[in-house]
Amino acid sequence: MSRLRPCNAYSIAAATGLPRETVRRKIGRLVDLGWIRKEQNGHLYLTPRALKHFGTLLCSRDLPEFLETADRVRNLRHD
Fold this sequence. Notes:
Elements: H1 9-16, H2 20-33, E1 36-38, E2 44-46, H3 48-58, H4 62-78
Antiparallel strand pairs: 1-2
């Protein structure tokens, strides 16, 4: 699997349209579950545990289709 680039709460909020506070709370939960590691600079990384659990999906050909569908749903929500 190729290395995934880090993101942060702001970029997730901007990409999803969710309020930053909601994203922050969800990130906290994912950190508690051990699926996300948060660095001092705010960068977020998937942990080996998350990659083991979701690695098949992340490498799947279905992922681009899933992301496209998510974009369509998000756009419908804004209309």
